[in-house]
Write a structure and sequence with these properties.
Elements lengths: L1 E5 L4 H12 L3 E6 L2 H9 L3 E4 L5 H8 L4 E4 L12 H19 L3 E5 L12 H14 L4 E7 L2 E2 L4 H12 L3 E4 L5 E2 L2 E2 H13 L5 E5 L5 E2 H12 L5 E4 L1 H11 L10 H9 L19 H9 L5
Parallel strand pairs: 1-2, 1-4, 2-3, 4-5, 5-6, 6-11, 7-10, 8-13
Antiparallel strand pairs: 9-12
């Protein structure tokens, strides 16, 4: 198959693109920066220069493609890269171009918690709006909603590992009982590959790891894997929320935003985990994955 990938240089994208190439597919990736071109070439992915505002680049990316895997997303707004622009408007442009190009499969990365409710974060509402556009498009599709993704490029895990290594204590928000179901990056990549390959996989599917754990257990597991477990210092949620509101003004430099804190507190566990039932993947346990990239103590 010829498969087009957006976000191919990102955390999830580079794993998905490399896996697709390894499974014998021809892969094209949309890339905005020269450094990204070198990365894609090292993965044997054909780079297409441009972004999702560039109609000509999108047309080149999709020409003759059998499927598109759409992974572009942001977790913090910056300038004109808003949740509306990136999640909703760009997805609609890509969908329209996919229909025009006769692309048969559209695979999208959404998120657990995506919904259209007044109390939802802007991130989750715009992910849901993108999903709705896909469902209404008439293009064969699969929407994948991963829980928290664990892997070597995970910035939150790396940050917590550094805190365990260098700080006498590690902050814990609230009581730390927020449910999580971390899922290994390679398991997520395999699910996306199988969704692109198999037209019988249609609809929306949640992806989680093999076990639900609370945020406190998540933080402690990172400390153990990093080899420097530290005591946890509880930070009341009122204090954490006030700090996050102040950090909101920093944009992409913010260590924590109000939306990110809300999503953490809401939790990201899934009772409808499709990783085994739909995709036939036996998910890697969280701590085993951590040991693969934190076991040496490197952070």
């Amino acid at each position: 198959m010829l498969i087009a990938v957006t976000g191919a240089t990102g955390f999830v994208g580079r794993h998905v693109a490399a896996l697709l190439v390894g499974r014998g597919h021809t892969v094209r990736g949309l890339v905005r920066r020269p450094g990204g071109t070198k990365l894609l070439q090292s993965l044997a992915v054909a780079p297409i220069a441009g972004d999702l505002r560039d109609g000509a680049a999108i047309a080149t990316l999709l020409r003759g493609a059998d499927a598109v895997v759409h992974l572009v997303g942001i977790i913090v707004e910056s300038g004109d890269a808003t949740f509306q622009a990136v999640h909703v408007d760009a997805t609609r442009r890509l969908l329209a171009a996919a229909r025009d190009a006769g692309v048969a499969r559209f695979v999208y990365m959404s998120a657990i918690g995506a919904r259209d409710e007044a109390g939802a974060t802007h991130y989750h509402r715009t992910k849901w709006q993108a999903e709705e556009s896909i469902r209404a498009s008439g293009v064969g599709h699969a929407i994948l909603r991963p829980s928290f993704i664990s892997g070597p490029e995970s910035a939150p895990i790396r940050t917590l590992a550094r805190l365990h290594r260098w700080s006498p204590v590690v902050p814990l928000f609230g009581d730390g009982r927020f449910p999580m179901q971390p899922v290994w990056i390679e398991d997520v990549a395999l699910a996306f590959a199988r969704a692109a390959e198999n037209a019988a996989i249609g609809g929306a599917f949640e992806l989680g790891g093999p076990a639900v754990l609370c945020y406190k257990e998540f933080v402690r597991a990172i400390g153990r894997a990093a080899g420097h477990p530290r005591p946890l210092l509880r930070v009341p949620l009122t204090v954490a929320r006030a700090a996050a509101r102040a950090f909101d003004m920093l944009g992409p430099a913010a260590p924590l935003t109000s939306d990110q804190l809300q999503m953490l507190v809401e939790g990201s566990a899934t009772p409808a985990n499709a990783i085994e039932s739909t995709f036939g993947i036996t998910p890697l346990p969280f701590e085993e994955g951590l040991r693969r990239y934190l076991g040496s103590g490197a952070t």
